[in-house]
Amino acid sequence: MTLADSARSRLFRLVGLGLRGRGAVVGVEQVREGVKKNKIAYAIVAADASRHSLDKVVPLLNARRVRFVEVPSAAELGGIAGRESAAVVGIVDRQLAKGIRALVESGSSGAP
Question: Are 90 and 25 in contact (CB under 8 A)?
Fold first, then answer.
């Protein structure tokens, strides 16, 4: 699913808010642990992350039925997390995840 630029900037602002409020976790291992413990409500995955990272997290997200959206750049995703790059950010806060999911579903170019 591809987001329009305005929706993507709103998405990044919401993710940044979640990170500052401890409503989100960053990185493959933290997200994998969160998914295994049923703590992750939604995820944002960088499409250009290493194949190894994606192979570790995407099948687990699908298996546990955790919805996620792809963003084009790990550097962009890492930038909002205060890192050089980030392969994945997991949203722990259920209300924040609900807001992000609504934004993604209404702001995607493929939305009905």
Answer: yes
